[in-house]
Amino acid sequence: VSGRSGTEVSSWRRRFEETCRERGIRVTPQRLALYEALAADTGHPTAEVLLARLRPQLPSLSPASVYRILDSLEAEGLVRRVSTPDGVSRYDANTGPHQHLVCRVCGKIADVEDDALAGLRLPASNPAGFTAETFDIRIVGVCAPCRSKERSNR
Length: 154
Ligand SMILES: [Zn+2]
Ligand SMILES: [Zn+2]
Fold this sequence. Notes:
Number of strands: 5
Strand order of the largest sheet: 4-3-5
Bound molecules: zinc ion
Order of helices and strands: HHHHEEEEHEH
Structural class: alpha+beta
Radius of gyration: 17 Å
Helix content: 40-55%
């Protein structure tokens, strides 16, 4: 698992708990565990991956509750859902503005923050009646581990 340090994860968790408290959102142990597992993983895991990771500590956690919790966290703007061409949703605890680097070999998704991307202008209302609000850029390529594997297989 590529991920954030323990210190980072605890500060993300503190901020999450604060936001929930401010908005009167109940923080259940399952919600907190799920958020924490997501915050620790910068690879944009699927709900299934998160479930498998949390099962040992939360044996009663069902797939249905993982989906329900992720849905409500997304609706509250506390996590971001990243859609993929294969249709399987991936999740992201980073809700700040950023775009995604997608490895076409292993499917890993990494965050990228870049001033040039952040400064892109949205298209004016075109076609007529359409109002652009945000953009979601996927930059497809090969991650470093996959590239070195490709090299050594040659
Ligand atoms: Zn890769
Ligand atoms: Zn992301």
